Amino acid sequence: MVANNIETKKDRCDTRPAAKVAFNPAALLILAISFCTCLLAQTHTTVRHYKERVDDTPPEIAQAETAIQKNDFAAAETLLKKALDKDPDNKQSWTYQAWFDLGFVLNRLNRTDESIAAYRKSVGAKPDVFESNLNLGLMLDRANDPDAEQFLLAATTLKPTAHVEEGQARAWLALAHLLENKKPNEALAAYVKAEDLTPKDPEPHLSAGQLLERQKEFSDAEAEYKQALALDPHSTDAAVGLTNIYMKSNRLSDAEPLLRRLASAHPSDAIIHLQLGRVLAAENKKDDATTELQIALKLSPTDADAQREIADLYASAGKNDLAEAAYRPLLATHANDPELHRSLGQALLREKKFPEAQQEFLTALRLKRDWPDIYVDLAFAANENKNYELTVRALNGRALLNTEMPPVCFFLRASAYDHLNDKKNAALDYHHFLDVAGGKYPDQEWQATHRLIAIEPKKH
Length: 460
Prior knowledge:
7 strands; disordered N terminus; two-stranded antiparallel sheet
């Protein structure tokens, strides 16, 4: 008798072998734009199988398997341990199966370390079983154990009990995911193996595309995404990946029609509307972009990416009151995000809400003290608030990070010193400003020249 159960790496729920299980791949972020994506795959699942029994197989194993089918894992554990007590030396032909079933049960009971130990016993008793090696490799991968590679690689050389090509492809995919960060070329080769074994499955092409994109191999990544999309025309992940390539290659005219077609076919897919909004914003079609981002938010009201995109879009369009309204709820849930505090501060600055802007910049600076631009923002807000001491401190802090300050910063600091009646330092900064301005700031250059006449009358 042969049977299969699939147990997800993420939520450990039983499904049938033909079902696919959603999981989130690590760091998809895409150019300067980040967004969340979900893949359908079986690569991070453990499998369960039964072998033909021999006459001397203890009856407790059959009873345990019945209990497993009923999700009575506590009873199954007791029965399996009772069976294994009959062979303490692990020499009987059936022990690998009992250890395998026990590994499955312990995993379902969320006892990872014990599950791994049981799977190790199963592989030790019979090293040439595909399912044992695969499950042990997956469990070790989940535990960040370097031994995972050894067992997943072994699984790729063995024959599954059933669904041979699908099982072998799953092993190659699991190995590829494991190798992505440390051995990317070997990971790509493993994805090719999976593609060859399951030519109708888009998942290996999708994963290969994502890896190639991270390696900035955009042409090859594009080819993989197109293959995935050809196999599954409704794949949001493939479409988003492909449009990311188009955006990185400044081929927005290719990205927009693809996303519009997908948005029309899947009007309830928030990710597609979000990506379309990004493309339209990059094309400077701000009104259309706003519409798409609003649709994305309506479909997924808690999507922080969509909230941030639309807030940034309002800000870039000069709709500062709307930008402020969009940034504030984001900060309620992301209070330690310095970029958000700065963005809100800039919107407030443009709204001439100078005290509030100053406070946001101070908060951003406390969260990220090595950020040169925030010192400049703070100096401008403090200057508008006539807080000249803070203006000077902010620009002095900026100078400590990088002596090459923008020319206007020297004028701003000179003006602050001037207001504080520190004529010596004011004169130094006015002179420095005039030396580096190069005619790019005619109004400030005129003011600096005339203030120097007032400060240093003997030199004029």
